[in-house]
Specification:
The structure is a single chain. The chain has five helices and no strands. The protein is mainly α. The chain is rod-shaped and about 120 Å long. About 10% of the residues have low confidence.
Length: about 180
Amino acid sequence: MAAKKPATTTKAPAAEPETVATTSKTTSPNTAEAKSRFNAALDEAKAGAAALGDEAKARVGAYREKAKSGSKDWSTEAKSTAGSLANEGKHKASEAMTGLSRVIDENAASLDEKLGPKYGDYARNASKSLQDNARKLDEKSLDELAEESREAIRKSPAAAVGLAALVGFLFARLFR
């Protein structure tokens, strides 16, 4: 095993400054010129970096403004498209209800003959109810329909959840 070294060691501080002094004396004329050129290049690089940073900030600001204005246009366009699609969907739903009402009304006479006048009257009442609901759906705006939906959900949230599950099930079956 090697012997342990003592904890304190002494340095020779005079050797380091002497080397520095020697090197600075021998290359002094070239060093001063190199330092001045280096400092000038460094200052030029700093100025260039600052100019690039300012230009980048300006470009980012311009792109940010362009994106904001574009997003406003896109959101306005999306809202108008969604509104027109919702109105079209509302109109098609109303037409479908009216068509179903006609089919039920046309078959009411057949129900009278086969099952009796009581069932024919049920069919006629259902047909009339569908026709009235289709007319009401056409007359109301989307905002009125949305408010009525909110009120119905507040009054009976359990029925709303059940209806949503039923509609989800029907859509899942429809789009398989």
